[in-house]
Amino acid sequence: MAALAFGLLPVLNALTTHRHLGASLPQGDWVMAGFDLAMLALGAVFAGLARHLARKARNAARQSASATLMTVETSTAGAIR
Questions:
Q1: Which residues of 37-50 are buried (b: 16+ CB within 10 A; e: fewer)?
Q2: What CA–CA distance (Å, rounded) separates 11 from 76?
Q3: Is the pTM of this model over 0.90?
């Protein structure tokens, strides 16, 4: 959610003002360009963090399911003998 919000701020700026990134860079308006670039960078960082955490949670869920399955298999194997 934060990645989307931060990433879309420069788009909102482009739609609502005349001082968007495409205009502020050639004019040398580094305050506006810097803000837009910082928001794009933060959006990318938040997107990367979200992807990393989602992958980590998915791997943890797989390991938990695998451990549960191994526990069930060993407990039923002992009962069969």
A1: eebbebbeebeeee
A2: 58
A3: no
